[in-house]
Amino acid sequence: MELEELEGLEPVSPNGQYFSSDALSVSFLAVLESEIPIDLESQSMFLLKNVFLPISPRFSSIMVENNGKKEWKRVEVKLEDHLHIPTFPSNLSPKSYDKYIDDYLSKLSTERFPQGKPLWEVHIVNYPTSNAAGNIIFKFHHALGDGYSLMGALISSLQRADDPSLPLTFPSQQRSESKENFVTKTFSAVGNTISDFWSASLKIMKEDDLTPIKSGNDAIEFRPSTVSTMTFSLDQIKSIKNKLGMTVNDVLTGMIFFGTRLYMQEINQSSSKADCTSIMLINTRLIGDYVRLRR
Questions:
Q1: pTM over 0.85
Q2: Which residue in 161, 201, 259, 290 has its CB near the most CB atoms, within 10 A?
Q3: How far apart are CA 13 and CA 70, in angstroms?
Q4: Does 128 have pLDDT greater than 90?
Q5: % residues pLDDT > 90 (the chain)
Q6: Phi and psi of 66, rounded to 5°?
Q7: Per-residue pLDDT, 201
Q8: Higher pLDDT, 83 or 195
Q9: Which DSSP symbol is given to 20?
């Protein structure tokens, strides 16, 4: 890979540096399901070169250190190094391929990106599963951006089925909140923030109990993980959101924490009363509708 000498390198954000260190390296996976088999050769390389790479300069950059500061440096991208096509046994049932993909995702989640190349990969799994004829797996390092911006990057590379010349559009969020409700929610949010800060401060002074999600063993980051998939109806999530007067983030956060607690109880009933702490990364932007990445 030949480096391009560019002036005025873009600095890596504090979050980007935090998520890319010797102690912590965070990446996430996104899976797109296709109703038809995926063209593995010409179409994939064409889309990566002409649609995906131009979306963001960071997709063509590596992280370098200059005078103690990390910066993004543009490089020449060899697409063949970023496109992976796994081979599974042929003529299996869709449910069998479901298991193969879950295992493949588990393997990807524990692998670090190689040094000296842009921090993304695309994996094409062209085997029929229970939900799709093929799957495209995107793996991004969190230093490239947060979930909202990278989701916007993926959406920007898609086209409308009815008219590819038109940009994607989504229904705008309708807000009919009164001024009184806004003031009430604002003061409530401030109070909750103070309460959460105080609770977090107390948590720092006390170590979590040993539970199924905290074994106390060393080097657990190098152990294999297991991916399991569940499907939830967006209509059900919206119904809960409206009934309780909360946001989609609130509903999803509650589902994840409740599911984690149920898992702990299933493994060890006594852990239902254990003290434990977890962290979840969610989008907190006050954006009512879809905004194109270039904006």
A1: no
A2: 290
A3: 9
A4: yes
A5: 23
A6: -130, 110
A7: 61
A8: 83
A9: B
Q: Write out pLDDT tens, residues 236-285.
A: 999 999 998 888 888 988 888 888 888 888 888 877 777 777 766 666 65
Amino acid letter, residue 290: Y
How far apart are the C-alpha atoms of 196 and 198, rounded to whole Å? Answer: 5
Question: For residue 100, what are its two tokens?
Answer: 């193969």
Q: Which pLDDT value is given to residue 189?
A: 63
At 1 the pLDDT is: 44
The pLDDT assigned to 231 comes to 81
Token pair for 236: 């059900």
Strand partners, 120: 140
pLDDT at 179 over 60: no
**Nearest Cα to Cα of residue 72 among 124, 123, 6:** 6
Counting beta carbons within 10 angstroms of the beta carbon of residue 227, is it exposed (0 to 12), middle (13 to 18) or buried (19 or more)?
middle
Q: What angle do CA 192, 193, 198 make, to 5 degrees?
A: 95
In sequence order, which residues have a C-beta less than 8 Å from that of residue 264 and are 6 or more positions away?
211, 212, 213, 271, 272, 274, 276
Domains in the chain (CATH in brackets) are 10-156 (3.30.559.10), 188-273 (no CATH)
- 149 and 15 Cβ atoms separated by less than 8 Å: no
Q: What angle do CA 146, 50, 295 make, to 5 degrees?
A: 45
Return the number of other C-beta atoms located less than 10 Å from residue 284's C-beta. Answer: 9
Least-confidence region, from 26-35, 75-84, 182-191, 268-277: 182-191
Q: At what angle do helices 248-267 and 234-244 cross, to 10 degrees?
A: 110
Question: β-pairing, 10-11 with 120-125?
Answer: unpaired
SS3 152: helix
Please give the sequence-ordered ranges of beta strands (E in DSSP) within the chain, or none if there are none. 10-11, 27-34, 61-66, 69-74, 83-84, 120-125, 134-141
Return the closest-CA partner of residue 279 out of 213, 224, 232. 213
Q: Is residue 60 a contact partner of residue 49, using CB atoms and an 8 Å limit?
A: no
